[in-house]
Amino acid sequence: MSQIKDELKQAEYLQKLPIIGARPKSEKEETYLREICEFEFSNLEESNLAVKFPYGNAKAQHNFTFFPGGKYRIPRCVAKWVESRSTPIWEWRPDGNGSLKKKLIGNKPRFQMRETFGG
Question: What is the model's pTM?
């Protein structure tokens, strides 16, 4: 019984974390982003390495540790933020004056959070 209470307290705490990034456009979108779902974590950069990072702001912050292949119950806004962490891909091109210009051509994803359904 106390384990269920602890899980409910943890879920309430996680739902109150701030949404980092673009502000939700509607109350419906905010409810969607705060919904707690089960996600499977994958580290695309270093496949067997666990990742530890803080999420939140100065008022409300939580430290997460994700292990590859692990399943976690977290809000969608946290999963979306984890997936948005990427490495920029740069390309150097000649500018016609004998020097090179650096241009951003894309981003390489570092992590993946797959939403799991069912057991």
Answer: 0.82
